[in-house]
Amino acid sequence: MQNLLITLELQAKNNSLEYVKQLPGINELEIDEEYGLVLISPKRQLYVIRVSGDMDVEQLMSIQPAVKGVYGDPKIEAIDESIE
Asked: Which pTM value belongs to this model?
């Protein structure tokens, strides 16, 4: 299972996590509620959510017009410099 970030274009009246959770295509994914719905571009009304799971990105984008992009979200950790 992989972690992904999904960029969504949402109107002001629909910019809630509860609204996003019921959208077709997205309602089948495991949404990271602690990450929440994050506004990344007020001018373009773009938001991002983090999800877990396997998905067909092209199918998701064809089902859900609010989806503007899907991106990997790799886990980033500090390097243990004591290893030689």
From this structure: 0.85
